[in-house]
Structures are given as structure tokens and as C-alpha cells.
């Protein structure tokens, strides 16, 4: 089958096309015939925990059809339309852990469904499962035009929370305001805490999702309300270190936590998937929210899709149509 591998060459990552055997589903797995997959910036950054070494079969999410099931799988059968997180989705087929499989909403295209699993489940963990954002509270999102950023805006909308988002591009912020972003913040640096406090009546954000990295960490902390929470999600700026104002964290009872899938056990992945399926997926099924696909590339164009996502031109997800 056709596949694309992410390979580290010096300080750069490239994608290389290779012919590899079709995988076989093991116990508790299904074989998915992939119709669409999506790109995630963190997987392409050399040195990040998500990148994971010198080379690997790329892709972390997909939509498609069940081709076969492994031992112990009874809830899915050949022909089912599914979506979910899966390693090795830059390929025609992939073996997916059944605990991460979700039914594909009938109203969505393959491309829209492929835009959901990684970004929306990451947003779900940051905002709902660990961030415990409540209705009427404020969510601050740095790098709001990314896939996880857009998913965070839409997830907060389901909860009934209000959102503030930072971006360097006023045009991107206009697009996000149209889908529910409450307070757009156009900024090219770590200078937004005052705007956040002004917009929230002097209180600050109840929860902040840092999708950018170390360069804005301190400003995100300064933007928090008393008993605020800060989720560390990504490092697109390549900066993995930042100072922490211990006194501010102590006095204001702040909570800081990380969101990463790298060391999750299978049962933990299944637990998160079921939580998302229960709490947020119904809003996608009935049309209250819809994943935002920026651009669709053909499978042979995957290297061009990588260049496009690295240009930071997108708002939402960059999707690759496999079939």
C-alpha cells in the first residue's frame, strides 16, 4: 500500500513516500480503509515529543471504512463508517485500536470527519476533562487559528463558555469570530494580558490553553483569574522552557497541567474517547458545531500539504483525501 513516512534530516523533517504491506488487525483492533486524514503541526516539529524519533509512518487521525476486525472486537463490523485517532494514518490502511474508534456522523464528509479526532479530543482533554471549564467562564486560547485552537472555540461554545483568542492575523480572527470566537486579540507577541483582563471585567481568564509554547507562557499566566488553570498543549514556537512566577501561582491558587498523548495507555485513550463521544460529539452530529476544514489536498500532494501547514496560512485543519 502507499504510505508517507516522516523522516528527520538534520534540523528538518520531510515526508517520504514508501510502499509497505497492508497491516493486519491484532486483538482489540480494526483495520480501517482510510478515506481521509489530517495533518497536525506538532507531529512535524523536529525535537518535539510528538515527532518521536528519526523516522515513523506519519499521521495520527483518519476517517474511513472498517475493512476487517481483530480478535475480541464485537462492536464494529466490516463496512462501518468510522473515524478516530490512529498511528500511521498517512497510508491507505491502518490498524486502529478499537477503543479509539468512533462512529462517523452521517452529515459530515470524509474530510470533515478526518478533521475531528486529534484536534477535538485534545481540546476536550484541555478544556473539559482536565480544564473543567464551566458555562459562563472565560477560555483564553493562544494560537487560536490552529486545528486545536478552532476545536477549542467550538468546544467552549457547546459548554456555554466564552472565548478569547490570540493570532497575528486580523483576517484569521475575522473568520474565527464568524464561528463563535467572542474576543479576538490581534498580537504578534506576549502583550495581551491587559486586553484579557479588560475584556473579562478585570478578573482574567478562568482557563488558558497554550498552543504556542514557551514564548507566551508567562503572559498566559498573567492573564489568569484567581484559581485559574493553564493547559500546556503545544510548542509551535520551538521554545520548551519558560520562567514561572511561583508567587503568583501560589497566591492566586493557579493550576498548571500538560496535555499529551505520548505516554497514554490504551485504556486511557479509550476513556478519553468515550468522554468526548458522550459530551461533545452529539453537538457535531446534530449540527450545533462543525469542524472547520481550511484546505483539502490529494494523497499524492501530501508533501505540499506539509509545506502549506508549515507556512501557517491555515485556519482550522489541513486535510488529505486518500481515496
Task: Give a brief description.
By secondary structure, the chain is α/β, with parallel strands linked by helices.
How would you characterize this protein structure?
This protein is an alpha/beta fold. It has 2 domains: 2-116 and 292-321, Quinone Oxidoreductase, Chain A, domain 1; 120-258, Medium-chain alcohol dehydrogenases, catalytic domain (Quinone Oxidoreductase, Chain A, domain 1). It contains 11 helices and 16 strands. The chain has helices at residues 41-44, 110-114, 117-129, 147-159, 170-178, 193-199, 217-222, 246-251, 266-279, 281-285, 302-310; strands spanning 2-9, 12-19, 29-38, 55-57, 61-69, 81-85, 93-97, 101-103, 138-142, 162-167, 183-186, 205-210, 224-232, 255-258, 293-298, 317-321. Strands 3, 5, 6, 7, 8, 15 and 16 form a 7-stranded mixed sheet that branches. A 6-stranded parallel sheet has the order 11-10-9-12-13-14, with helices on both faces. Helix 3 crosses helix 4 (147-159) and helix 3 (117-129) packs across helix 9. The longest helix is centred in the last third of the chain and has 14 residues, at 266-279. The mean pLDDT is 96.
Amino acid at each position: 500500500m502507499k504510505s508517507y513516512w516522516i523522516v528527520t534530516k538534520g534540523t528538518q523533517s520531510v515526508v517520504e513516500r514508501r510502499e509497505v504491506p497492508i497491516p493486519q488487525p491484532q486483538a482489540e483492533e480494526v483495520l480501517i480503509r482510510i478515506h481521509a486524514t489530517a495533518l497536525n503541526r506538532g507531529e512535524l516539529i523536529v525535537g518535539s515529543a510528538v515527532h518521536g524519533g528519526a523516522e515513523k509512518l506519519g499521521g495520527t487521525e483518519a476517517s474511513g471504512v472498517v475493512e476487517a476486525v481483530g480478535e475480541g472486537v464485537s462492536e464494529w463490523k466490516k463496512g462501518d463508517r468510522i473515524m478516530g485517532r490512529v498511528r500511521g494514518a498517512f497510508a491507505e490502511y491502518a490498524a486502529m485500536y478499537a477503543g479509539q474508534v468512533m462512529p462517523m456522523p452521517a452529515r459530515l464528509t470524509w474530510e470533515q470527519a478526518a478533521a475531528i479526532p486529534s484536534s477535538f479530543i485534545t481540546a476536550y482533554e484541555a478544556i473539559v476533562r482536565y480544564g473543567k471549564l464551566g458555562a459562563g467562564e472565560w477560555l483564553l486560547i493562544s494560537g487560536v487559528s490552529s486545528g486545536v485552537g478552532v476545536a477549542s472555540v467550538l468546544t467552549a461554545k457547546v459548554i456555554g463558555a466564552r472565548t478569547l483568542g490570540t493570532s497575528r492575523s486580523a483576517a484569521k480572527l475575522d473568520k474565527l469570530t464568524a464561528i463563535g470566537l467572542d474576543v479576538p486579540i490581534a498580537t504578534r507577541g506576549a502583550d495581551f494580558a491587559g486586553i484579557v483582563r479588560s475584556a473579562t471585567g478585570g478578573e482574567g481568564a478562568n482557563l488558558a490553553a497554550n498552543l504556542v509554547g514557551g514564548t507566551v507562557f508567562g503572559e498566559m499566566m498573567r492573564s489568569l483569574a484567581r484559581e485559574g488553570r493553564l493547559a500546556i498543549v503545544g510548542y509551535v514556537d520551538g521554545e520548551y522552557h519558560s520562567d514561572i512566577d511561583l508567587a503568583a501561582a501560589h497566591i492566586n491558587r493557579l493550576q498548571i497541567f500538560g496535555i499529551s498523548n505520548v505516554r497514554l495507555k490504551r485504556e486511557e485513550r479509550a476513556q478519553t474517547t468515550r468522554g468526548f463521544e458522550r459530551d461533545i460529539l452529539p453537538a457535531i452530529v446534530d449540527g450545533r458545531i462543525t469542524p472547520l476544514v481550511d484546505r483539502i489536498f490529494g494523497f499524492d500532494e501530501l508533501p505540499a500539504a506539509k509545506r502549506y501547514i508549515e507556512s501557517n496560512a491555515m485556519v482550522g485543519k489541513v486535510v488529505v483525501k486518500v481515496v
